[in-house]
Amino acid sequence: MIYPTRPCVLAALIGAPLALVAALMQPNLWLAAPGWLLGLGLLMVVDAVLAAPARSADVRLDVPGYLAVAAPSEARLIVDFGNGRAVHQKLEAALDAEARVGLEQSRGRRVSETEFAFPLKPERRGTAIFNEAIVRWRGPLGLIWRQTRRPLPVQTPVGSDIRRIEDEALRMFSRDDQHGAKVQLDVGEGAEFHALRDFHSGMDRRTVDWKQSARHHTLLAKEFRIERNHQVVMALDCGRTMSEPVDGAPRIDRAIHGALILAYASLRGGDRAGLFAFDGRPRLSTGAVTGVGAFPLLVRQAANIDYGTEETNYAFGLTSLSATLKRRSLIVIFTEFADSTSAELMIESVGRLIRKHLVLFVVMRDDELEGLVSAVPETPEDVSRAVVAATLLRERDVVLGRLRRLGAHIVEAPADRLGPEALNVYLDLKRRDLL
Fold first, then answer.
1. CB-count exposure of residue 362 (10 Å: 0-12, 13-18, 19+)
2. What are phi and psi for residue 96, nearest 5 degrees?
3. pTM of the prediction?
4. CATH topology of domain 54-158
5. pLDDT tens readout for residues 216-229
6. How many C-beta atoms lie closer than 10 Å to residue 415's C-beta?
7. In CATH, 162-177+228-431 is 3.40.50.410
8. Phi, psi of 260 (to 5 degrees)
9. What is the pLDDT of residues 162-215, one digit of tens each?
10. Under 8 Å between Cβ of 423 and 262
11. Where along the chain do its domains lie?
12. CA distances from 226 to 194, 200, 290 (A)
């Protein structure tokens, strides 16, 4: 595309009237106005010929391999003409991207002769899609713009802030990181034998190894340490209810943040961790991974969990999860139930899981309902809202009580404390050797 620059337009607007006035004063100068416009047009043609052609422009977009929600980042657009014809000419560039990218301004800031910077600050998880780049440059005479649009087949995942998750997990985990590494004196299911030591007063007599004691003519006791390599699966409900906001962010975003904190601590503690997401049907299953080095993989996979619009099918989702697990695992379910019908189906599905696995049920405390109950009523409508809210909270407590009686462990915490509270319970379960 070729079109005139602002100076060219101004020259035409100013020069033509002046030539017309001159023609009115001197009739023999009546060709001055069309001559001026024709001359300007010829100069524009010359400028277009001298300008670098659009086909010679090589446009590339360099974006980070992963973007974090609410974390500043930057994309770089590189325009290379190869032969250097446009290096000394004015270049401008703009980006067209979907709203999820968080493009703060469409026009880029020029950082070098052929490179532009675009600040990014994503607002939602998912896949960031950059649609196209628009690049234009002036001819050497400054009379015309050449412009080209280039599609950009560039996509990058947008997810949680890895550094913030790791810092928060380390801060919580460092208080208990000795669990799973230090020698334990208690024996339980799955305990791992470590060594023999002299028996001392106060030690558990069940740890005495009578055969070795008889051989060495002194009392010897077994030392144990918590068994590692447990399997921890974070099951994330990404249905319609979990897509609703709480404290300014969707519930699913809060759940993913908490799940990743728990996953990082699990991997760091020597256990295996995996993600499973479902709504009306299973959406994501990463399988169990090992080692802290695999944590970025879980983060990138979590970025692919979309905001669901379907009702959650607990029977289908949890049955599919159970079918993929070949060994006893800790299943951490992040969910929210809206009515007694869905809660009944959820309880039935969780009951089948508990027969083989250890289940940790994580829900967010509903501060809005609690606020309605505790608020001083001023109108009859306030009383009605308080009664309805109290009924919903009572039904919620009944559901959580039934889950506890089935054998599930429950975490009910504020949205911003979901990860730390779940991590505390995980460490406690590991300390008690229940995994």
1. buried
2. -115, 120
3. 0.70
4. Immunoglobulin-like (2.60.40)
5. 888 888 776 555 68
6. 20
7. yes
8. -70, -35
9. 777 878 777 776 655 444 444 343 444 445 555 777 877 767 777 787 887 888
10. yes
11. 54-158, 162-177+228-431, 195-225
12. 10, 21, 17
